[in-house]
Amino acid sequence: MIKDPSAYTILIIEDNPGDLLIFTEHLKNQIVNPEIHTALNYQEAKAMLTSSGMSFDIIFLDLSLPDKKGLELIHEIVSLSAKTPIVVLTGYSDIQFSIKSLHLGISDYLLKDEITSLTLYKSIRYTIERSKYIISLEQSEKRYIDLFHLSPQPMWIYDIDTLCFLDVNKAAIAQYGFTYDEFLTMSIKDIRPEEELDSMMEVVNATRLDSNRKYNGFFKHKKKDGKIITVEITSNLIAHNGKTVRIILANDITERMNYIKAIVDQNKNLREIAWVQSHIVRAPLARMMGLIKALQHDDAYIEDTDFLFRELLKSADELDVIIRDISNKASKININNEKYDLGDFTS
Amino acid sequence: MTLEILLVDDDPVVQYLHKSVLLKSNFPEQKFFSNGALVLNYILENKHEDLLLLVLLDINMPCMNGWEFLEELNNLVIKPLVKVVIVTSSINGSDRDKAKKYHHVFEFMEKPLTEERVGNLKNDTDLACFLS
């Protein structure tokens, strides 16, 4: 028979030396070189499980030890085992209890009198594999929860019937100023300014049963301190604890909107400047050009050249006044009044 | 059909210069108006069907500016044939683009008016027979 060459580190918690001997033999029949540790009572087991540097692939646990037994023993060992799978060793008299213990964190149970090398080996392999699978599932679930809770973008989940918050992430807590517990007593209406409630309900009702599911839009939201912010909302329907709920991603774009407004205002100013240049500044200049042309051609039609010179000077004075006026106005505008942090665009 | 030339500008010196340029180019006599409202009134009182009106129109004027005048002109039901040349100090491209939206406007000239620019008007088919 081919023995399993893999390395196993096994802890057996068993006070009966005879049972221990038989058990060890069974293990050695199937596994080339198992690393077997034994504890004869709870105190020894506790010492081994809490000592650093000790880690086990699987723990076998007899349910009646001299210093602890039954339910209390299971609780203690489960809490010390740090997710190492535990298999209970039991006699006929305890079998009902062993079955019940499965929901306390016990992975499997074996009837002592029925153990063979094969059934024992099979239990070891099954239990270890299943435990690995469960741990990877838990890690995967944790990764998804972290993706929500540690996302830098504010997110929450709400009940599409009651509109109550079901979960909010850290970024949302930071953005709105409510604590996690406060959020869970609130509905999504509580982060809207009064006048936005009607339009919010329209969107909520329109998207509630939307099979397309996705929604994007801009809204005004109210923070805990009463400050109104503009947010860009992206949302989607998802399944959450067996219920269909809506997940919201809310990006504060208040700053961005301010930048856009500043640019729009600047453009308006530029258009005004262009108008002034064309209609106010160039008017006397065009007149001067016309007057000079008339003088240059020594027009027979023009009776009074003095008149032309007088008007030329008047236009020049007018132009001077206009330019001084513009210069005065410009000096009053503090162009670098506001500083915007737009990141490093210069490189 | 007779041609009348209407000069619309609020600046008397500009009126004087336009008049001298047109005179040198052998254009017929002109009538002068200092804003859009005055020239609009004149057109309303003289809407004969056998009249051709050539309007040299400034944009920036008090009371009714050039654009407002063009809007009013569009709203008239019965009107003589009116051909508008915009004569402005503006060198702004947006004014030039805006002028193209009015079907009465067939020319856009920057001030100062010169004999060369005015001479181009004689190439217009409607005006050629009146201007020599």
Explain what the structure shows.
The complex is a heterodimer of chains A (347) and B (132). By secondary structure, chain A is an alpha/beta fold. Chain A folds into three domains: 9-147, Response regulator (Rossmann fold); 150-252, PAS domain (Beta-Lactamase), CATH 3.30.450.20; 256-332. Chain A contains ten helices and ten strands. Chain A has a five-stranded parallel β-sheet, with helices on both faces. A five-stranded antiparallel β-sheet of chain A has the order 7-6-10-9-8, with helices on both faces. In chain A, strand 1, helix 1 and strand 2 (35-39) form a beta-alpha-beta unit. In chain A, helix 1 crosses helix 5 and helix 9 runs antiparallel to helix 10 (305-332). In chain B, helix 2 packs parallel to helix 3 (66-75). The relative contact order of chain B is 0.19. In chain B, strands 2-1-3-4-5 form a five-stranded parallel β-sheet. Helix content of chain B is 37%, strand content 24%. Chain B is an alpha/beta fold. Chain B has one domain: Rossmann fold (3-Layer(aba) Sandwich), CATH 3.40.50.2300.
Which short descriptors sum up this protein?
heterodimer, A: 347 residues, alpha/beta, Rossmann fold, Beta-Lactamase, 3 domains, five-stranded parallel beta sheet, five-stranded antiparallel beta sheet, 10 helices, 10 strands, 49% helix, rod-shaped, B: 132 residues, 6 helices, 5 strands, 24% strand
Fraction of residues in helix of chain B: 25-40%
Secondary-structure-derived class of chain A:
alpha/beta
Oligomer: heterodimer
| Low-pLDDT residue spans of chain A | none
Q: What number of domains of chain A?
A: 3
Largest inter-chain interface?
Answer: A-B, 21 and 22 residues
Please give the share of residues in helix of chain A.
40-55%
The percent range for strand residues of chain B is 15-25%
| Principal-axes shape call of chain A | rod-shaped
